[in-house]
What does this fold into?
Amino acid sequence: MQTSFIPKKPITESRVSGSGVSLFLLLSIILFITAITLALGVWLWQKSLVSQIEKDKVALEAARKSYEEDTINNLVRLNDRIEESKTLLSSHLAVSPVFIMLEKNVLRNIRLKTMKFSEGADHKIKVELSGTALSYDVLSKQSDAFGSENLRKFISEPVISDFSPTVDGSISFNFSALIDQNLVSYGNTLDSSVVQ
It folds into this structure.
């Protein structure tokens, strides 16, 4: 029988490390507080936006009531007229740029007699000319002028045909080409310069 309460083995203290639990607890608390703060901020921001929307609705309604109904109707009709005018201007054709182009690019020894414009089903504008040239050489130079680089953006498919000598020694011919619609658009003639 043991009579002593003193243990024969040395007693070692076993300590449980509490730093891991307390660090986890601290991070949890920080995340919880951050989440609550963010949620409160979002809630306050939402309330602010709703309040601002309501104020804007009231201001808009007051502004709408301040205008007379007749004024609003007149402004709507005016806007419709302006839009219709824009449509008419964009579809209106002006022939004067074609005359200016011909004036600048037809050679001196060429005389034009007739001119005809037509618009095809595909909205391409065709010009047909008839005239006389002093000689075949002049007619050849005119053909080169119609096919020149500066006219390619305005006319396509230029064709000189039916050339034959006349009794006075000149050469009669016919000319046809497709004209770019931008050249004869009335709206473009108001905005920009014509063919140089």
User: Anything to note?
Assistant: The longest strand covers residues 155-165. Helices lie at 19-66, 69-91, 96-105, 136-146, 149-152, 181-184, 186-191.
